[in-house]
Design goal:
Blueprint: E1 2-7, E2 12-19, E3 22-30, H1 39-50, E4 59-65, H2 69-86, E5 90-94, H3 95-101, E6 109-115, E7 121-129, E8 132-142, H4 144-148, E9 155-158, H5 160-164, H6 166-173, E10 177-179, H7 189-201, H8 220-233
Parallel strand pairs: 1-4, 4-5, 6-9, 9-10
Antiparallel strand pairs: 1-2, 2-3, 6-7, 7-8
């Protein structure tokens, strides 16, 4: 099964093509530009290197969050357009699950952390049961100290948030805190593809129209609208 996968959830952008569980081609890029500037060129390059056309693909996979609101919209809309154009199935994969899956240390608890800005991280915990990744806690957006304070065993931290708040994590957990190598902090599209395989095999795919980002928290625009509504609803001193 030929799968094209991509990730645009963070500051990095990754595109990969796999065929029956083997990696054919992958390109990962990190630039201080919106992903829309280079995503289509990356897609064309990866397909050309793999030797496939879009019509040769059997399915698509994409990270659906949490992560950058703009980045997620770019990646998901691109995959939805491709899947709709060639009428092929699509699978949405958690960005946190992807980070946990590509962690080399599978003996300890794994806690992927993504920088969520505003001094918060997106986080969840996972554990491997043989070859299966099992989520232990729900994904949430919290302060880094809150994300780790309930952990009572050795744990591997990976992701942009793990690097950004490394010292804070070590201050809370001490020797129980372990960190993956830098190469594991970037989400790889090939990992997204490999994770999607088990769902493709049992036909557990997502409807193209129903595929939406998993933001976890509201955007600044939504928060502003909510705040404005509360102000309008609040009684005035003359009422």
């Amino acid at each position: 099964m030929k799968i094209l996968a991509l990730d645009t959830a963070t500051s990095s952008c990754s595109v990969a093509v796999t065929d029956d569980g083997s990696l054919c081609a992958e390109l990962t890029l990190r630039k201080n530009q919106t992903h829309s500037k280079h995503l289509m060129e990356m897609l064309d390059s990866v397909l050309a290197i793999a030797g496939f056309g879009v019509g040769d693909l059997d399915g698509f996979a994409v990270t659906i969050g949490p992560g950058s609101f703009t980045g997620l919209r770019i990646g998901i809309s691109t995959i939805k357009g491709l899947a709709f154009a060639v009428d092929k199935p699509v699978v949405g994969i958690s960005s946190l699950e992807t980070l946990a899956w590509q962690c080399a240390d599978r003996s300890n608890l794994i806690c992927p952390l993504l920088d969520a800005r505003k001094a918060e991280v997106y986080c969840a915990t996972y554990r491997f049961d043989k070859d299966y990744l099992v989520q232990q806690t729900p994904a949430r957006a919290v302060e880094p100290e809150v994300a780790v304070r309930e952990i009572t065993e050795p744990c591997v931290f990976i992701g942009s948030g793990a690097q950004l708040y490394r010292q804070k994590i070590k201050k809370v957990l001490g020797g129980m805190a372990h960190f993956g190598p830098p190469g594991q902090d970037i989400i790889r599209a090939s990992s997204v593809a490999f994770l999607s395989m088990k769902r493709f095999k049992v036909h557990d795919t997502d409807g193209v129209a129903d595929l939406i980002p998993h933001y976890i928290r509201k955007s600044d625009a939504e928060l502003s609208v909510a705040a404005e509504s509360r102000c309008k609803a609040a009684p005035t001193a003359n009422s």
